[in-house]
Write a structure and sequence with these properties.
The complex is a heterodimer. By secondary structure, chain A is of the alpha/beta class. Helices cover about 35% and strands about 20% of the residues of chain A. Chain B has 12 helices and 11 strands. Classes of the chains: A alpha/beta, B alpha/beta.
Chain lengths: ~270, ~400
């Protein structure tokens, strides 16, 4: 199995964490994480590293990445990611993004199509579809969120979310140190900067999708309870030649639930 | 220690149906609001504040909350302007306007100055960041709450104290011509109060500007001990000893003829408030509070009134001070002395407490408790002046 290791990269906003690894000379693949900040230990990255040259930047405010105080909106986020691409010498790469990461991938692909060779959007946020709202993610009980995000409630991360739903109470009673709550609060605050208002979308993105020149694959988790399929359909119809694939047995956190299947889809799409 | 008495009104919606068990905030369905009840209680609540002047209070307080049943006062400035005409002597404390929700915030400078002019200089200007639920109700990004507050505050204080027109260019507000008419009646500006729930940033901000800090209630009294100690320390770090008039303690109070009668008359109305109107108030949207403040607030969060289960806990933690005039006076003297707060903000009407009981409690407090406290803290009512924000 391939492996990735952690690096720190200096950017305009500060030092950020990046997970890199894989086959030297393999096709460059960038993975942009969701609001959950899935990066460290993500099995999908190891699968991708079997055949690709993988780069998974950790967005400011998540993990150990600095600089969220210099990022106010999607505009700033796109410039930051361009900066990361430049620092790592990525002239062009296949970009895979989940949810928030899918939104950011689409933003890069509309504004700087030359930097994106292939585009894979997994349960992407970023659009507003009347009548098909993205469920609330802020201030929600993690118990309820886990049900919307995982097809399999026995998945270890779903289980962790169920345990964590009592975190605040346990922190108050002193059973759990505040430091364990800290990363979660930071990740939510960073996400709020990009997606509080407008809620997880850019009103201008839909009419810019025609700018995407990369071959595009949209992957929808059939059991996703957070972002309705209508969003995947809108991306698929807005990007010329885009293909939409449904993955059964997966909800919002598809890369965690179906890493092998997603790896296969990405590999066939990138190598094909 | 100087001591001033204020009567604070939340203007709660007193008629949530018994079978509704959802939050009183943000998503509480507005079809539950009955305009006939609205008409009745708005006028009754205003009368209760006006009555406080007759009874000898130093001031009255109103505040701002949106899309909720806890306090149906989205515009406290409307209430303040009515009070400016219908009272003649009391201070009118609007605590406060949620500055980040006003765009441009010169609107606050204008409306507050209007009320100050109409009332002949009786306004106390309260500025708040706005509660967590407000950021949901306004779809306002909580990550920018503190920044917007800081900028809006600077704009308002400069609008009141600097000759206009001038240009203001900040991150959130860009105003080419700031030139507020009218100017405030009180010069250089009205007294400034800032309510806080234990956030360090807020205390440091208040201490820096020599404003007054109002402790938000509904926690165990020990949380107030810590809060006001932290505020005094924040003033010391700014290089001065704090003035008791820089601190206000907001406390539900109910006075009746005897301790037993007080509890009998009051308890169910208190539980309506705690169990029906508080749910949903304590949501903290992401980025709204710094991590070090969250850590500090969490220390007291376990004692939040919403978790109360018995009347004994209410009494022990002083979530409300309820009893005969003697009992209430004794408890207030002890706590005021210990907390060192020169402003007592009594919350007399609470939850479903009806008009006749509210007025009786106000009367007993004014006639029998207030004289005892004035005797205990004889220095009398002074006026606090904050330093100019831009000094």
């Amino acid at each position: 199995m391939g492996s990735v290791s952690e690096e720190k990269v200096s950017t305009q906003v500060g030092k950020v964490q990046v997970f890199r690894g894989g086959v030297a000379g393999g096709p460059p693949v960038v993975y942009l994480h969701s609001a959950q900040g899935e990066s460290a230990g993500l099995l999908l990255l190891e699968r991708l590293a079997d055949w690709a040259s993988v780069t998974a930047p950790v967005f400011p405010g998540f993990g150990e990445s600095e600089g969220i105080e210099h990022i106010d909106d999607v505009e700033d986020a796109v410039f930051h990611l361009l900066d990361v691409f430049d620092q790592l010498g990525l002239a062009s790469a296949a970009v895979v993004g989940l949810s928030l990461g899918g939104w950011l991938a689409a933003e890069i692909a509309t504004r700087y199509p030359e930097r994106v060779s292939k585009l894979v959007l997994v349960n992407p946020a970023g659009l507003y579809i009347a009548g098909h709202p993205i469920k609330e993610i802020f201030g929600r009980n993690l118990d309820d969120l886990a049900v919307e995000m995982f097809a399999d409630q026995d998945h270890p991360v779903a289980q962790l979310m169920h345990h964590m739903s009592t975190f605040a109470t346990s922190t108050i009673s002193g059973e759990i140190p505040f430091d364990m709550l800290r990363p979660l609060l930071q990740a939510q605050a960073a996400t709020a900067k990009l997606g509080w208002d407008p809620y997880l979308h850019n009103p201008k993105l839909a009419r810019r999708l025609y700018r995407v020149s990369a071959p595009t694959l949209i992957v929808h988790g059939a059991q996703d309870g957070l972002i309705p399929r209508a969003h995947a359909e809108a991306y698929a119809s807005g990007i010329a030649g885009a293909r939409l694939v449904d993955v059964e047995g997966a909800a919002h956190m598809l890369p965690l639930e179906k890493p092998d299947e997603l790896d296969r889809l990405v590999r066939e799409f990138v190598e094909g | 220690m100087p001591l001033r008495f204020f009567s604070f009104h939340l203007m709660p919606y007193p008629a949530l149906p018994p079978d509704y068990d959802g939050p009183a905030w943000v998503t509480c369905p507005n079809e539950l609001f009955d305009p006939a009840i609205g008409h009745e209680v708005y006028n009754r609540y205003l009368d209760e504040l006006i009555y406080a002047e007759e009874l000898g209070f130093d001031g009255v307080c109103v505040n701002e909350h949106h899309q909720n049943a806890y306090g149906i006062m989205p515009s406290p400035n409307l209430m303040g302007s009515i009070l400016a005409r219908q009272t003649k002597r009391v201070k009118i404390a609007i605590v406060g306007n949620a500055l980040p929700l006003y765009d441009p915030p010169t609107r606050v400078a204008e409306e507050f100055a209007m009320i100050d002019n109409i009332s002949g200089g009786r306004l106390i200007a309260g500025f708040v960041v706005g509660g967590g639920p407000e950021y949901y109700s306004f779809s306002m990004n909580p990550a920018h709450a503190r920044d917007r507050f800081a900028e809006a505050h600077e704009i308002i204080m400069r609008a009141w104290t600097e000759p206009g027109p001038f240009e203001y260019v900040g991150k959130h507000y860009k105003l080419r011509y700031v030139n507020t008419w009218p100017r405030p009646f009180q010069q250089p500006h009205p007294e400034v109060w800032i309510p806080g729930a234990g956030s360090l940033e807020t205390m440091e901000f208040v201490a820096k500007h020599h404003y007054a800090y109002m402790g938000i209630p509904y926690f165990h009294i020990s949380v107030f001990d810590r809060t006001f100690r932290m505020f005094r320390e924040a003033c010391e770090r700014e290089g001065y000893e704090y003035d008791p008039l820089q601190a206000g303690w907001l406390e539900p109070i109910y006075v009746a003829e005897t301790d037993e009668q007080a509890r009998t008359e009051y308890e169910s109305h208190f539980w309506y408030f705690v169990k029906r109107l508080l749910p949903g108030i304590n949501i903290s949207p992401p980025g709204y509070t710094s991590l070090r403040s969250i850590e500090n607030i969490l220390k007291g969060a376990g004692t939040f009134a919403i978790n109360l289960t018995s009347w004994d806990e209410v009494v022990e933690g002083q979530y409300a001070i309820v009893g005969s005039p003697e009992t209430v006076a004794e408890k207030l003297i002890e706590s005021l002395g210990r907390l060192g707060t020169g402003n007592l903000l009594g919350l007399f009407q609470l939850g479903t407490l009806p008009g006749h009981l509210t007025r009786k409690s106000l009367e007993l407090f004014a006639n029998e408790v207030m004289p005892k406290l004035r005797k205990e803290f004889p220095e009398g009512a002074r006026v606090l002046r904050g330093q100019s924000a831009v000094a």
